[in-house]
Amino acid sequence: MEKIAAKVREVAKQALASGAVTKILGWETGEFWYDASPVFITDEKAADSLIWDAFCVTNLSKYLIKELKTTQKIGVFLKGCDSLAFNQLLKDHRIDQEQVVIYGLPCPGMIDPEKVKKAGLHQGLLKVKRSGDELTFVTANGEKKVSSRSFDYDKCLRCRYPNPVVYQELIGEEIVRETSNEDRFADVSALENLSPEERYDYWTKQFSKCLRCNACRNVCPACSCEKCVFDNVAAGISGKATVDSEEQFFHIIRAYHVAGRCVDCGECSRVCPVGIPLHKLNHKIMKDMNELYGTYEAGVDGADKSPLVTYTLDDTDPFDGHRQGEK
Amino acid sequence: MKKLAKSKLFEVWSIIAKEHELFVPVEQEGESVNFSLWQEGEHVNLDHLKTNVSPKQIVFPQTETYLKFKTTGKKLSLENVGGKQAPYVLFGVRPCDAQSFALIDNVFLTEPVDRFYEERRNKGILVSLACSNPEETCFCQAFGITPGEAPQGVDVATWDMGTFLLWKPQTAKGESLTNQLNGVLEEALAQDEQDCQELQQDIQQKLKDLPLAKIDPKQITGDLKEIFDAKIWDEYSSRCLGCGSCTYVCPTCHCYDIRDFDGGKAGERFRCWDSCMFSEFTLMAHGNPRKTQKEKFRQRFMHKLVYYPNNNEGVYACVGCGRCMDKCPVNMNIVKVIKKLGGEKA
Ligand code: SF4
Ligand code: SF4
Ligand code: SF4
Ligand code: SF4
Ligand code: SF4
User: Fold this and answer.
1) Which residues from chain A sit within 8 angstroms of residue B280, using beta carbons?
2) Of A133-142, A193-202, A297-306, where does mean pLDDT reach its minimum?
3) How far is A217 from chain B (nearest CA, A)?
4) pLDDT in tens, A257-291
5) Pairwise CA distance, residues A130 & A140, whole Å
6) Is B196 in the pocket of ligand 4 (CB under 6 A)?
7) Which ligand is nearest to the CA of B94?
8) In this predicted structure, what is the pLDDT of residue A138?
9) pLDDT one-digit tens code per residue, B187-217
10) Other residues' Cβ atoms within 10 Å of the Cβ of residue A13
11) Which ligand is nearest to the CA of B97?
12) Ligand 5 within 6 A of B33 CB?
C-alpha cells in the first residue's frame, strides 16, 4: 500500500496545482499505529500528510453533502464501499457529480485495531504495513509477518466490491476477491431459524445497549436527511430516554428508512460504540427484497431504481407470495 | 492494611451483595466489559482497564425519571419519584473514573445541590483498583492522576498483587465495609506493603514509557479569547460527524436535558444525558447560538480545557481515560486538540 500512498500524494498535489480541484479529501495519520482520520487539504504542500494504509476505513463520501455547499470542485479518494455510498448519494440527489473528481482506490481490506489488541499484538507496536493479504507488524524489536484476514474488519471480510464502482481515475491495480451472497446472509439465516420470541429477546437485548449516540446514523450514507426526525424537537419523538420502546422505535425507523438504499458499507456496525450488529437488520431487509423482487444491490449503479420505489403489475405480493406474511 | 485473597472474591461479593447492590466490571460473552449488577456466575473481569461505558452511569444514570403526573378530570396529581433507594458498592473503579466523580461533584454538589445526584453519591461505597498495566491510550497523568496510588476520596483503595488484592480503607464508609468483611480479609504483612511500593514504582516507570506521556494541558498558552478564535476549530470540526459517541462514553461529560413523556392524560418527567455535539443542544426559543458543528465541537473541548478549569481552580474536566479516542468513528479526540493547542511537554 505504500507505493499507492505515494501515488495518492502525487495525484493530490497535481490536482491542486493544476487547479482541477480546489480541495482534496483524504486521510491523514495521528498518534497511533491505527490512527487515520479524514482530512481536507487546500494547500499543495499539505498534501504530503495524506496517507493510504490499512486503517483508512472511514467512508469519505458522506462528508460531500456538507462540503459541496461551499466547495465548487473537490477531489476525493474512495474505496469500494465508499464508492457505493457515493452512487447512492447521487441517486438521492444529495450531491452533484459535476463538483467531484473521484480517485478510486482498490482496497485490500481494512484492519480492525480491536482484533489486533485482542490478539495481544499491540504491545510496543509502531506500525502496521499491508501488502495484499499480508501484514507486517513493526515493533522496536523487529518485524513480524501475518496473514491479514484474521484482523480485517468484519465488514471487510464480507466485502463484495473491493474495487470502486465509480471513479474518474483509478489508483493502483484492481483487486480480485471471491465473494458469495450465501455467506453474506448467513447471519440472517441463523436468526431466521430462531422462534419469534427468541428473536425478539435477541434484539431487545441488543437494542437495550444502545446509547442513542447517533454514530450509526451520522456515519451512514443512506441517512442523508437534512434534518432527521429524531433531531426535530417539534416532532416530539427525539426520544432521549434509554428505555426499550424508544430504542426499538429508533432502530426500526432507521432500518426501514434505509431499506432499498442501504449500500451495505458496514459503517453503522463498525462505529457503534456498544457493538450492536446493525448490519443484521439491514441484511434481513436486503435478503427479503432479493427474494421478493429479484437481486438488487444499492449503490452499484448510480442511475437504476430501487425495487421499493418502482411498481410493476407482476410484483410479488408479500402477503401472498412470500411465506404468506408469516413472522 | 488488609488483604483479600482472589480465591475469596466470590465470598466477599456474596457478603457485600446481601446488603448492597454490587456493581462490578462484567464481561459479557463476546462483548465488552461494563459495570453491572453482580450475579453469581457472571464473568467479572478485574484486568480490563476501561469499561466500555464509564461507571458515571451509576452515579448519574443516562435516564432518570423525576416526576410522574396524571390528570383526572380537572385535577392534576404529581408524584415525586427518582433518586437512589438501595445502598450500593462500586467495586473495581479505576483511578481516572474515581476522579471523574470528584469532577462531576463540583458541578452537582455545589449550590444549588442536585438532590438525586447527592443521594446517589451518599448511598455509594467506592472500591478502587490501581492500574498495574496502563494502556497506550491512557494519559491520566496529564491531569495529575497517579494510577498506582490510592485515589483521594474513594472509600477503599485496592491493588492487584497477583494472588490477592491489597485492601486499604480510607473513609468511615470504607472502614465499615471492611468490618463487615472481617471474617474473610486477612491482615497485610509488612512484606505485602513493601511489594506494593514496588508495584507502584513499576507503574510509575510504565507511565513514563506511554506514548501520550508528554501530554500536558498546562502548556497551552493564550487567553480564553485566543483559544476560542484558534484556527483548529475549523480544521478539526470539519471532520467531526457530530455524533455523541465521545460525550456518551466520557466519564466527565455531564450535560443533561429534561424531557417529558407525554402520554396525554398521564406522563413522566425525566432527566437524560445530552451531548454538546447534537444539533438541538442549546436550542432556545430564539434559535440556537451554536449553529454549526464548529461551535459544537469547540464547546466540548473549551468546556474541558478552559471553562471548567477557569471555574474550578485550574482543574481540568478530563481525566485522560482515552475512551473518546477508542470510540470516535473518525479518530478525532481531545489528545489531538490538546496537542494542536500546544499542550505538550518538550
Ligand atoms: S468494505 Fe471493502 S472496500 Fe470497504 S474498507 Fe472493507 S475491504 Fe475496503
Ligand atoms: S445502514 Fe449501515 S451499512 Fe447501510 S448504508 Fe448506512 S451505514 Fe452503510
Ligand atoms: S451507534 Fe450504536 S449506540 Fe450509537 S445510536 Fe447507533 S446503535 Fe445506538
Ligand atoms: S475527554 Fe476523553 S479522555 Fe477525557 S475523560 Fe472524556 S473520554 Fe476520557
Ligand atoms: S465521537 Fe468523534 S465524530 Fe463523534 S462527535 Fe465526538 S469527535 Fe465528533
Assistant:
1) 231, 233, 238
2) A297-306
3) 8
4) 999 999 999 999 999 999 999 999 999 999 999 88
5) 18
6) no
7) 4
8) 93
9) 999 999 999 999 999 999 999 999 999 999 9
10) 18
11) 4
12) no
Sorted by sequence, the CB contacts under 8 Å of residue A173 that are 6+ apart come out as: A106
pLDDT given for residue A140 in this prediction: 86
The closest CB to that of B280, out of A122, A219, A233, belongs to A233
Kindly state whether A327 is in contact with chain B, defined as any CB-CB distance less than 8 angstroms.
Answer: no
First CA to last CA distance, chain A: 47
- Interchain contact B194–A (C-beta under 8 A): no
By residue count, chain B amounts to 346
Q: Which residue has the cell 447471519?
A: A187
CB A26 within 8 A of CB A60: yes
CB B193 within 8 A of CB B1: yes
- Residues A163-197: b if buried by 16+ CB within 10 A, e if exposed: bbbbbeeebbeebebeeeeeebbebbeebeeeeee
Query: Is 90 exceeded by the pLDDT of residue B169?
Result: yes
Nearest Cα residue to B104 out of B153, B49, B46, B64: B153
Model confidence at A40, in pLDDT bands (50, 70, 90)? Answer: very high
B327–chain A Cβ distance below 8 A for any pair: yes
Which residues form ligand 3's pocket by a CB distance below 6 Å? A 210-216, 271-274, 276, 278
- Assess contact for B272 and B286: CB atoms under 8 A: no
Q: End-to-end distance of chain B based on CA atoms, in angstroms?
A: 40
Q: Note the pTM of the prediction, 2 decimals.
A: 0.92
Pocket test for ligand 5, best of B235, B290, B292, B332 (most atoms within 8 A of CB): B332
Residues 6+ apart with CB under 8 A from B38: B13, B17, B22, B23, B24, B26, B44, B91
Q: What chain B residue is nearest to A273 in terms of C-alpha separation?
A: B327
Amino acid at A60: L
Question: How many beta carbons lie within 10 A of that of residue A213, not counting itself?
Answer: 25
* Residues paired with residue B260 on neighbouring β-strands, in sequence order: B269
Q: What's the 3-state SS for B2-42?
A: EEEEHHHHHHHHHHHHHHCEEEEEEECCCCCEEEEECCCCC
User: Could you read off the pLDDT of B230-287 as tens digits, one per residue?
Assistant: 999 999 999 999 999 999 999 999 999 998 888 888 999 999 999 999 888 888 888 8
Chain B hits for A40, CB-CB cut-off 8 Å, are: 235, 238-239
Q: Binning pLDDT at 50, 70 and 90, where does residue A325 land?
A: low
pLDDT digits 0-9 by tens, A73-116:
999 999 999 999 999 999 999 999 999 999 999 999 999 999 99
For ligand 5, atom 8: residue with the closest CA:
B240
Q: Which residue has the higher pLDDT, A181 or A203?
A: A203
Residue owning grid cell 410522574:
B68
- pLDDT > 90 in chain A, percent: 70
Q: Which chain A residue has the Cα nearest residue B284?
A: A233
How far apart CA A88 and CA A61 sit, in angstroms, is: 10
Residue A247 backbone zone (phi > 0: left; psi -120 to 50: alpha; other: beta)? alpha
| Residue A186 to residues A31, A191, A230, A284, A327, Cα–Cα distance (Å) | 37, 9, 32, 10, 19
Which protein residue has the closest C-alpha to ligand 1 atom 7? A109
